């Protein structure tokens, strides 16, 4: 969550207080906490678990929270509604399928940002390869442009030695940041 929020905040062209952000698979609200700390105030969240939504609601950081099982149903938002969409910590084997990427794009405004993360541990490498193929296909089609794909060696603590990156006790991960096309032209003074 801190790396995703920092990446998004760095890319934002204007003060983020008025930006509408959708936190997909929001869980307990860790991403919202980080975004709020960086000046984002208009936060909406969706999650497939009613229990997680209750925990997110208890943070007081979200203006709107909705139940949505991504991959089985569309996001509960109109097209081109959000300035940014995040999906942090749920893109992995047995979690959110990479086939949801077009749905994330659908609800993002042209010129808006999509920030994603995934793990690089051995049990997630096949999923990550499929995710990166889907990301690249959308980029080649002109749907979005990649601003960042940052590999992070010490992503999170490994739960087993087999999952650890070269015996470090940690697994690696990646933060991706894309901007939906068409990107608005820069106004010259």
TrEMBL record:
**SUPFAM superfamilies in alphabetical order:** S-adenosyl-L-methionine-dependent methyltransferases (SSF53335)
**Ranges for domain Methyltransferase:** 21-112
* InterPro entries given in the database record: Methyltransf_25 (IPR041698), SAM-dependent_MTases_sf (IPR029063)
Read off the Pfam families from this record: Methyltransf_25
Per its record, how is this protein called by name? MET27 protein
- UniProt source species: Grantiella picta
